[in-house]
TrEMBL record:
Keywords: Signal, Transport. Coiled coil: none annotated. InterPro entries: Bact_solute-bd_prot1, SBP. Pfam families: SBP_bac_8 (PF13416). Gene3D superfamilies: Periplasmic binding protein-like II. It comes from the Bacteria. The keyword Metal-binding does not apply. Belongs to the bacterial solute-binding protein 1 family. This is Sugar ABC transporter substrate-binding protein. Residues 1-29 form the signal peptide.
Length: 464
């Protein structure tokens, strides 16, 4: 499969109703479209109806009538654009994609492995979960095929391939990527109050104190409830603080367990985060007390920024997908975000993403894996997501296909100095820790447990 492909349904012409999608996937040159009249599309004069050439997909062979099942934590509304981005593949190969999203993905996937009711493909949000599955169920996940490997080596920084590898074997190609080191705020509220976007952590804390002292809405709102994955949004906050208070080297030692989870540097990071998250004078604006953070859904926690009941909300770039339809995300719009500051001299960035793991090696499954690792899919996904909230570390993703200002901001952050980037720590940790005791530890910490009790419990759960 080549990049910048033109797609035509085998044996006939395929009409793609989305003009923008066709613009990404269609080349400006090439031979006969092989079409003639498609027999579809009404009067045939619709500018959005464009033929696409499927010739490059022929290398996959005859896949007509086959099905690939996909299991993922990506649910509505994000799932809609995921499914839309598969159309070039399904139109050209005849493969049906049976998509299932679940908010209880992490727990349910392990149960499915144990009961041998496996999907063909799962989008793993944690490399640590990949390592856990490979270690505990060594025959479950299939190594990535050569074609998928070639795509990843061509389009991704080497670190991303390493995230999808276990003990030197490459299993899971990167899918979407995200940037987590953002604080969402209302530009108009800041302007009316005369507040400046903080450039250091100390500036941000001083601003929080000023807002708290002014009365009215509290400075921060937060929420970590996410079904069986409750707590993950809090682990992101802690990880961002570790990068800033302890530094990149200590962060690396922490996520690989070269230092214990209850190392003094990690205790300090929890306490630093707690100056916001466990401070009743700062949180939880319009939502309740500190303990309400544990029960407030992460997707709605920051919406108070839009109605003036909240000043700031720390969340990743994909928080844009949780905003109401019609929200203007712009520097002078309804909501925008600034970089979560540190010491003003270094600029660490917390990143994350999903990885495509296959539990079957049938030809249609391997073909879909390869498509998802390609630049073609990355660009199709970008154009299928016009409301924003999605980017990829795929270096074949064309910046011009991102239509939202915030996605461009995120894209630039993701493609800046890779030495300043670190992958989500809980996602790199063993599954029972990163997606287990760390998540539950966050809930316990927010509802009254001390930092020492929480980090000691997490450390006790980590087995080398």
């Amino acid at each position: 499969m080549t990049s910048s492909i033109r797609i035509r349904k085998r044996g006939s012409a395929a009409i793609v109703a989305t003009a923008a999608l066709a613009l990404v996937l269609s080349a400006c040159s090439g031979g006969d479209s092989g079409g003639g009249d498609s027999g579809d599309g009404g009067d045939g004069g619709d500018a959005a109806a464009t033929e696409i050439d499927c010739a490059p997909y022929e290398e996959f062979g005859d896949l007509e009538g086959t099905t690939v099942s996909v299991y993922t934590s990506i649910v509505e509304p994000e799932s809609d654009t995921q499914i839309e981005s598969y159309k070039p593949f399904t139109e050209c190969t005849g493969v049906e994609i049976a998509y299932e999203g679940s908010r209880e993905f992490e727990a349910q996937l392990l149960l499915r492995i144990q009961s041998n009711t496996l999907p063909d493909i799962a989008f793993l949000p944690q490399p640590g979960l990949l390592r856990t599955i490979v270690a505990e169920y060594p025959d479950a996940i299939k190594p990535a095929p050569e074609a998928t490997t070639a795509m990843v080596e061509e389009y991704f920084n080497g670190a991303w391939k390493e995230y999808g590898s276990v003990d030197g074997t490459f299993y899971a190609a990167p899918l979407g990527s995200n940037v987590k080191s953002f604080v969402w705020y209302s530009p108009s509220m800041f302007e009316e109050a005369g507040y400046e976007v903080p450039e250091t952590w100390d500036d941000m804390m001083a601003l929080s104190e000023e807002i708290a002292g002014a009365g009215g809405a509290l400075p921060w709102c937060a929420g970590v409830e996410s079904g069986d994955a409750t707590g993950w949004a809090g682990t992101d906050f802690i990880e961002d603080v570790v990068l800033r208070s302890a530094g990149i080297d200590v962060y690396d030692q922490w996520v690989t367990h070269e230092i214990p989870f209850n190392d003094p540097a990690i205790v300090e990071a929890f306490d630093t985060a707690g100056e916001i998250l466990k401070n009743p004078d700062y949180v939880n604006a319009g939502l309740g007390g500190v303990d309400s953070i544990a029960t407030t859904p992460w997707g709605t926690a920051g919406l108070g920024v839009l109605d003036g009941t909240c000043w700031m909300h720390r969340a990743a770039n994909f928080y844009a997908t949780q905003l109401p339809e019609g929200t203007n995300v712009a520097p002078d719009g309804d909501i925008w975000a600034f970089y979560l500051p540190g010491d003003g001299e270094t600029s660490p960035v917390l990143v994350g993403g999903e990885f495509t793991a296959a539990f079957a090696d049938r030809p249609e499954v391997q073909a879909f894996q390869t498509y998802l690792a390609s630049a073609d899919w990355a660009n199709a996904k970008a154009i299928a997501t016009p409301d924003g909230g999605w980017i990829s570390a795929n270096q074949g993703l064309e910046r011009d296909n991102l239509t939202q200002e915030f996605d461009l901001l995120s894209y630039d952050a993701l493609n800046a100095d890779p030495e300043a980037q670190r992958f989500d720590g809980s996602d790199l940790m063993p599954g029972n820790v990163g997606a287990g005791t760390f998540w539950t530890g966050i809930v316990n910490w927010l509802t009254g447990s001390s930092t020492e009790d929480v980090v000691d419990t997490i450390e006790a759960s980590w087995q080398d």
